[in-house]
Write a structure and sequence with these properties.
This is Flagellar operon protein TIGR03826. It comes from Carboxydocella sporoproducens DSM 16521. By secondary structure, the chain is mainly alpha-helical. The strands form 2 sheets. A two-stranded antiparallel sheet has the order 1-2. The mean pLDDT is 88. It has helices at 22-41, 47-54, 58-66, 91-121; strands at 2-5, 12-15, 75-76, 83-84.
């Protein structure tokens, strides 16, 4: 454990890796619980509805959505703009990105193999 300053309120606290003090974490969890309960009780609610009804910052709601802690209408894929309910990107973009990464890895492995073969011939 080490002594840290809370990134939210600046107060010193003993941390086992957390960036915020226990009080700020509790306050954050209470805000999340209010939002989660409201969304649960009002199916089909939008981000704007939550902000208006609960008086929370839109950034808070969007952060919970991006983290995958909430599912709500009004969120869009950060890559293509398609509507999504949670996370940062839609399923189609996630699949495309995965395929691109796999192609890149495969190409890199092929280059490494070719370079290895050249070294062996010398």
């Amino acid at each position: 454990m080490e002594l840290k300053n809370c990134e939210e309120c600046g107060k010193l606290f003993m941390s086992a890796g957390a960036l915020r003090c226990p009080e700020c974490l509790d306050r954050e969890e209470a805000i999340f619980s209010r939002i989660r309960d409201y969304v649960w009780e009002h199916p089909g609610v939008t981000v704007d509805d939550v902000v208006r009804e609960l008086g929370v910052k839109p950034e808070k709601v969007l952060a919970y959505l991006r983290e995958g802690r909430l599912a709500i209408k009004g969120l869009t894929c950060q890559r293509c703009g398609a509507p999504i309910n949670m996370g940062r990107i839609c399923q189609r973009c996630a699949k495309e990105l995965e395929q691109n990464v796999n192609r890149t890895i495969k190409g890199h492995k092929a280059k490494m193999h070719t370079a290895s073969m050249r070294r062996e011939k010398k």
